[in-house]
Write a structure and sequence with these properties.
73% helix; transmembrane; ROH1-like; transmembrane helix; 332 residues; membrane
């Protein structure tokens, strides 16, 4: 095993390559839906693996005991902690919504014939549930306002000169800069998916220093490959957000694909029940729409529970990593 203080250049270069590969994997996502739970889970997995790789790198570098590098890492890990807690809060806010919707769908299993009176009762329950969506999105909007701008500024900040500070602490400062930029992008994607999204404007990829004409240019300087990969991913996500907002008639809110599908399924049940009220006879399509509603909310619940579990694991990783780096300094 190599000593912790050897091959600094190759270790730092390897970290940049690791970031690049992870970003490229997200860009070439074969799910073809960048606002789905599956993609959000991949983004969170990348964020967690990037952070873990950063801790591995720190243990290989000769870093001074009690140096400013530790304070800078602690600041960055605190930022990750704060935004991920905002994500978890946004997800928790959906629990009442999908629990109410699931209860409505389950209660309809007990009815073998939908009369106008019964349909009216269910429609009222659905309307209450739909109003909960508006309240949820308004809460998430406030949650986002304090966080999205700093993240966007971090992603789109100008690259500092190589000669100044990026090589300090055996390249760690440059690595932390890269990690901060990449994690900000991934957190923005997660927030726009599960919390609230106004538009694709925060993914203005041209501001990252990446230009399509720069691809393959070895003279781009610091982080050329991972910066280019960031730019491509930003561009792709911006396109997906534009596409999703066209489907919602430009309406801002929670863009998560499964969330939108569940909203549509609930509205379809409501429409069928309104037809029962108008024609005073049961419409055969009601049962089919109810089954679709149950399936949609089942997928939404399972997916969000998976992401919540990932967030909890990430919180544990951050706690252990902070302790590990403090221990390294103590032992040194």
């Amino acid at each position: 095993m190599a000593s912790p203080c050897t091959n600094n250049n190759s270790s730092v270069s390897g970290f940049y390559n690791f970031l690049t590969q992870g970003l490229n994997d997200l860009h070439y996502n074969n799910n073809n839906n960048f606002m789905s739970i599956q993609f959000m889970s991949k983004v969170l997995s990348c964020l967690q693996s990037f952070h873990s790789q950063l801790i591995i790198l720190v243990q290989r570098l000769c870093l001074p005991v009690g140096g400013k590098w530790l304070d800078e890492y602690m600041d960055e890990s605190s930022r990750l902690w704060d935004v991920c807690h905002a994500l978890k809060s946004a997800i928790s806010g959906m629990e009442n919504y999908y629990s109410s919707a699931s209860n409505i769908a389950s209660s309809m299993d007990n009815y073998h014939h939908f009369t106008p009176e019964l349909s009216h009762q269910v429609i009222r329950a659905i309307s209450v549930c739909q109003r909960e969506i508006l309240g949820l999105e308004e809460e998430n909007k406030s949650l986002m306002e304090a966080r999205i701008q700093p993240l966007s500024e971090c992603v789109n900040q100008n690259i500092p000169p190589m000669e100044s500070k990026l090589n300090e602490f055996n390249g760690f400062r440059g690595v932390l800069y890269a990690m901060r930029s990449v994690s900000s992008l991934l957190l923005m994607i997660l927030l726009c998916g599960v919390a609230y999204c106004w538009s694709s404007s925060c993914f203005a990829f041209h501001q990252t220093g990446y230009n399509h004409h720069d691809e393959g240019n070895s003279n781009m300087g610091f982080g050329s490959n991972f910066m280019a990969s960031m730019g491509r991913l930003q561009h792709k996500v911006a396109e997906e957000i534009e596409h999703e907002m066209i489907k919602t008639n430009g309406q801002a809110g929670i863009l998560l694909h499964e969330f939108q599908e569940a909203k549509v399924a609930m509205e379809e049940v409501k429409v069928e029940l309104e037809r029962v009220m108008v024609y005073e006879e049961e419409v055969v399509m009601v049962e089919e729409k109810v089954e679709k509603l149950k399936d949609c909310f089942g997928l939404l619940r399972c997916g969000l529970e998976t992401i919540t579990g990932q967030l909890d694991d990430f919180f544990d990783d951050i706690v252990q990593s902070r302790k590990k780096l403090l221990d390294i300094c103590t032992h040194n």
